Amino acid sequence: MNFVTGKTTSVRAAPRGEKRARKAVKGTLDATADQEDLPDLTLTDKAYQELEELITTLVLPPGMVLGEQNLVQRLGIGRTPVREALQRLARDGLVVVMPRRGILVSDINIRTQLRLLETRRVLERLIARLAAERSTKEERDVFASLAQDMRDAATASDDLAFMRLDRHFNELIATASRNEFAVRSLESMAALSRRFWYQHYKQAADLPLTANLHADVCEAVARRDVEAAGDASDKLVNYIESFARKTLDL
């Protein structure tokens, strides 16, 4: 279901690239974890993903006060996982926890977004280059599949499909970079960027161009072309910055 139009979209709810990205990320975790048979998602992960999507797609808009018990009922997930998910969302800057008052969905600020992009440019270029150099054959196959799904979302102008693919793209490229320090610095910025984009894209963004620029990064990584991956990342951030500056005129 498209949250903007209210219509069922032609792009699959779980595109092949998204499914394979989950498997590739999980496979890397399984290879390095001490535990066996890790679940695909913990309840905290599930609560976090569902709440993050509700916030980034503005179903839960900036300034809204959230009640923990209401969220438990809405998600059908226990209080502890929801509380842990809210703590993660607070670290990501999407909510502000107010003791004894509730949880406030944070405001969206253009100046914060521009400062964020200064950091993203450097980190995303590094991570894209590392992913092109260090990704496994399985991961490169998934990047190729994600690229096609991004182009399908571009053709259909499907905002929700793109946002979901973008999240899995971020997860996969982070895993493939094999640099946890760069990833930790970048991961908290992704949701803030998606929410900013979702708020303004109908007035100022070119969704097909955005999705195709992501696809260009995916294809460069799939080819193991380090220079092309860095250049594609720069072009993507250039566009995102120009989009952010356009919102000043809205």
Word description of this protein:
A hairpin with a 3-residue loop joins strand 2 and strand 3. The protein has 250 residues and is mainly alpha-helical. The N terminus is likely disordered. The longest helix has 25 residues. It is globular, with a radius of gyration of 18 Å.
List the helices and strands and how they pair.
Blueprint: H1 16-32, H2 43-56, E1 65-66, H3 68-75, H4 79-91, E2 95-98, E3 102-105, H5 110-134, H6 137-156, H7 159-177, H8 180-204, H9 207-222, H10 226-246
Antiparallel strand pairs: 1-3, 2-3
Helix pairs in contact: 1-6, 1-7, 2-4, 5-7, 5-8, 5-9, 5-10, 6-7, 6-9, 7-8, 7-9, 8-10, 9-10
Give keywords:
250 residues; mainly alpha; three-stranded antiparallel β-sheet; 3 strands; 71% helix
* Cα end-to-end separation: 27 Å
**Helical/strand content category:** mainly alpha
* Radius of gyration, in angstroms, nearest whole number: 18 Å
H-E string = HHEHHEEHHHHHH
In short:
This protein has 250 residues and is mainly alpha-helical.
